[in-house]
Design goal:
218 residues; alpha+beta; 5-stranded mixed β-sheet; 5 strands; 55% helix
């Protein structure tokens, strides 16, 4: 990974800066390598993964700039969300996310869940029973179906995967953005949520250019 990191650093210095940032992001400052390379869903696309927690106010405030960024998402970039799970107290929110995803209601309830916690102050993100009840009350689905999904083998397996992703990414907090399974940035590293998205764009642009150069040599 250190060798890969050095190669990428040299590559960044050789490629023109397309980002609106005043200076090129620096490895070890505005972004870094992940602790362990993560697999991506589609090898033909550049993956950007947000690691987040519904109970995090910084993640809540990331939603506005992130949604604006998603509206301009290039066709060669794949975006996905991954609930952060560094400790058991965050599990109910990860369980909620994977339950909503399995039931096909994540798009409908994603923003509403953030609002319930941070705007309405109506939900304790660490209270598993309250979280389950919230999904039932806001989904319009049968309680038994929601409960079965909430406690399913698939959701429990995804919780283990989320914990592994958090460890492998080397994230120290949320929200964090993992680019192509190899690099990580965050508002803390980049100086703000908007800046983290700019750093992400910069890395994506350079990965895209590297792929084109590699293809041209074949």
């Amino acid at each position: 990974m250190k060798k890969l990191l050095l190669s990428f650093a040299l590559f960044l210095g050789a490629v023109s800066l397309n980002s609106p940032l005043l200076a090129a992001p620096q490895i070890g400052q505005e972004f870094d390598a992940v602790a362990q390379t993560l697999p991506t869903d589609d090898k033909n696309k550049i993956e950007v993964m947000e690691i987040f927690w519904y109970g995090c106010s910084h993640c809540y405030h990331m939603e506005q700039p992130l949604n604006a960024w998603l509206k301009k998402l290039p066709t060669d970039v794949n975006f996905k969300r991954m609930p952060g799970l560094p400790n058991p107290s965050w599990a109910p929110m990860a369980q909620a996310y994977f339950t909503m995803e399995a039931l096909g209601i994540s798009e409908k309830l994603h923003d509403k869940l953030f609002d319930a916690i941070h705007k309405q102050k109506a939900l304790n993100p660490t209270d598993q029973k309250a979280v389950l009840n919230w999904i039932v009350n806001n989904s319009g689905l049968d309680r038994k179906k929601v409960e079965e999904t909430f406690n399913s083998f698939t959701v429990n397996a995804n919780l283990k995967r989320a914990a592994q992703v958090f460890r492998s990414s080397g994230a120290t907090g949320v929200p964090s953005l993992v680019i192509d399974g190899k690099y990580i940035t965050s508002g803390t590293m980049a100086g703000g949520n908007t800046q983290a998205l700019e750093v992400t764009d910069y890395i994506v642009n350079n990965i895209r250019t590297a792929k084109k150069q590699s293809s041209a040599k074949k």
